[in-house]
Amino acid sequence: MSSRDKVVYVIDDDRMDRKFAERIISRSQMFENLELFDGPLAAMQFIQDGGRPPELIFLDINMPPISGFEFLERYADQIQAMDPVPVVVIVSTTVNPADLERAAKFPLVKKFLCKPLSPDHLTEAASLLH
């Protein structure tokens, strides 16, 4: 399966950040299957309703009602049970060392990137896919 066939989720509560990520991903032509969610609960509901699980997740961490970290804590077992296990890339405006340390504690998180998502970030994330 080429990277174009893989499913990418962008989970971010900020509408403009989602639209910007959508534009970067669409223009790259690296991925054809993109799903945008305004929060992690919507993404999990999509999967439970029969939507195709992702191979790559771009995840914001500062979102109500549950943060990206809370999402990872709550759904880590379900995410790890997916085949293949998705690569999680945190995309955040924060460069808080505590957030970087906390992200490093999650085996699912393979990269921590600062917003906005860029073509170089996308290439980096795609290189993490199997």
Question: Any chance you could write out the topology, listing elements then pairs?
Answer:
Layout: E1 7-11, H1 15-28, E2 33-37, H2 40-48, E3 56-59, H3 68-80, E4 87-92, H4 97-104, E5 109-114, H5 119-127
Parallel strand pairs: 1-2, 1-3, 3-4, 4-5
Summarize the structure.
It contains five helices and five strands; from the N terminus they run βαβαβαβαβα. It has helices spanning 15-28, 40-48, 68-80, 97-104, 119-127; strands spanning 7-11, 33-37, 56-59, 87-92, 109-114. It has a five-stranded parallel beta sheet with strand order 2-1-3-4-5, with helices on both faces.
Task: Describe the structure in your own words.
By secondary structure, this protein is of the alpha/beta class. It has five helices and five strands. Strands 2-1-3-4-5 form a five-stranded parallel beta sheet, with helices on both faces. The longest helix is centred in the first third of the chain and has 14 residues, at 15-28. It starts with 6 loop residues before the first strand and ends with a helix.
